[in-house]
Amino acid sequence: DAGITQSPRYKITETGRQVTLMCHQTWSHSYMFWYRQDLGHGLRLIYYSAAADITDKGEVPDGYVVSRSKTENFPLTLESATRSQTSVYFCASSGPPVGASEQFFGPGTRLTVL
Amino acid sequence: DQQVKQNSPSLSVQEGRISILNCDYTNSMFDYFLWYKKYPAEGPTFLISISSIKDKNEDGRFTVFLNKSAKHLSLHIVPSQPGDSAVYFCAASVGGNTPLVFGKGTRLSVIA
Question: Are the beta carbons of A52 and A68 closer than 8 angstroms?
Fold first, then answer.
């Protein structure tokens, strides 16, 4: 099925552990994004990618690492999870231009860091 | 500092009436604006957009108005339906060439 998927949908981890959230899209969109949604903050951009092997920081990149070796995948890694990274994470994809094309969002991953 | 502000965290409207959701921005370089709608436990979905060359864009029951001098835009939903109950996010970009900056969202409740 075409679309954008995220896995896992729910994750509980402990402080200090490494966690990787997966994102996969089937549209061959050039742009992919990672956002976090927190109460009182709305959607904040963590990282985005314009193409394979091209990534750039967003508003809140600290503590996160991304890679994009294939156009369809854009994993987000928390190298050493902290409680402040408890959030709902959304992946999205779009065609160009980056700020004028409709973004298609995945269903989200709810991450809890204990 | 917030560049895109949605100052009303929530709004309640009766079914059939008009819903007006407001968004203010501080960056005068923003010239492309989008609205997204989000249901619980789902990702946001695109609703409507407007570029600064227009002051109004309409799509069915949804109309977005842009007042560049006031750095203000609003989303009108007429008539409001219970299925419109969701969180609405305003987002902005510079020239369509920079990543979107989102507001904090407004939760709309349409009461039957």
Answer: yes
